[in-house]
Automatic annotation (TrEMBL):
InterPro entries reported for this sequence: Kinase-like_dom_sf, Prot_kinase_dom
Domain of life: Bacteria
Residue segments, region Disordered: 201-222, 270-290
UniProt source species: Novipirellula artificiosorum
Molecular function (Gene Ontology), one example: ATP binding
Cited Pfam families: Pkinase
Protein's recorded name: Serine/threonine-protein kinase PknD
PROSITE patterns hit by this protein: PROTEIN_KINASE_DOM (PS50011)
Length: 322
């Protein structure tokens, strides 16, 4: 869990610093927070605003990869334009001489939803008490609010999963990682989000770890919609509804609905397997029938049989009595 930074007195001085260097040299005390297959997230202190920020940039081995540069820049610009309480504010975007493309955003405290669900699965009582079903549904609604806002502006997230839902120490919910978002009107709108995009440099066993297996997992294949698995070029907001529905199933049952022994079996389950509702999958978790009805509609194989708009999905979640 990341702690909230304290206010630094020097950051409230009435005079601006002199000769502020350009690029990432403006930020001091850089410290790595997390890294993925292509990018690294660091915290740093902004001498101009006097606040601690988060800075995302590419790893040395991907820094000159034009596709990765383009993806990071897209993530930065999409995130910057989605100004909503459930998205993270972006403060700056740049191209540093040493570090390449980067963007600076609010540093948020807390942890992702997957870590919370993992501790619940492991029977950690403090987490179970802090995150009852009603709270887990509130978190999901927060993420879906960000998606509804994005959909209204022509953006499809395409990577909704518990790891990308950040739960803050003060109740805030932030939907992260818009790096593979589909934006209407862009030249590459029709690029399918397929296995090669989602599973680079990761083994199948790492991707399909269970909640109780420990460790961070990309997990994306577990949440893909059938149309994503098919490489469908007509993906719309109903694909995000499916992925949010899979996330909801996991939040209810504390088990992934479609996980197979490998990625191919997982994809086959997503496309063809009829799964039991959460209350049957996890009968010991007291899941109400109304929750079953909502989540099973969200994860219908055919987009036309799901909720057609994220607002409808949100409204349905709110009707659940816990």
């Amino acid at each position: 869990m990341i702690n909230e930074p304290t206010i630094i007195l020097s950051g409230t001085d009435p005079d601006l610093p002199q000769n502020v260097p350009p690029g990432l040299a403006r930020y001091s005390g850089l410290r790595e927070m997390a890294r993925g297959g292509s990018a690294v997230l660091r915290s740093g202190f902004d001498c101009v605003t006097g606040r601690t920020v988060a800075i995302k940039s590419l790893l040395p081995e991907t820094r000159h990869d034009q596709r990765e540069q383009r993806r990071l820049l897209r993530e930065a610009r999409v995130t910057a334009q989605l100004q909503h309480p459930n998205t993270v504010p972006v403060y700056d975007i740049g191209n540093d001489e040493e570090w390449g493309i980067y963007f600076v955003m609010k540093r948020i405290s807390g942890e992702n939803l997957f870590e919370i669900l993992k501790r619940i699965a492991q029977g950690e009582q403090d987490t179970i008490d802090a995150y009852p079903l009603s709270r887990r549904l509130e978190i999901l609604i927060g993420a879906c609010q960000a998606l509804a806002y994005a959909h209204a502006r022509g953006v499809i997230h395409r990577d909704v999963k518990p790891e990308n839902i950040w739960v803050g120490n003060f109740g805030e919910v932030i939907l992260l990682d818009w790096g593979v978002a589909k934006v209407w009107g862009h030249a590459d709108d029709n690029e399918p989000l397929n296995r090669s995009v989602l599973t680079t440099e990761e083994t199948e066993s790492q991707q399909l770890k269970t909640l109780t297996g420990g460790g961070q997992r990309p997990g994306t294949p577990l949440y893909m919609s059938p149309e994503q698995v098919n490489g469908n070029r007509g993906i719309d907001e109903r694909s995000d509804i499916f992925s949010a529905g899979v996330t909801m199933y996991e939040a209810l049952a504390i088990r992934e609905p479609f996980r197979g022994a490998n990625i191919n079996e997982t994809f086959d389950n997503i496309q063809n397997k009829e799964i039991p509702p959460p209350s049957e999958r996890s009968p010991d978790r007291n899941i109400p029938k109304s929750a079953d009805d909502v989540v099973m509609k969200a994860i219908q194989k055919r987009p036309g049989q799901r909720y057609q708009f994220m607002r409808d999905f949100i409204d349905a979640i709110r009707t659940i009595e816990t």
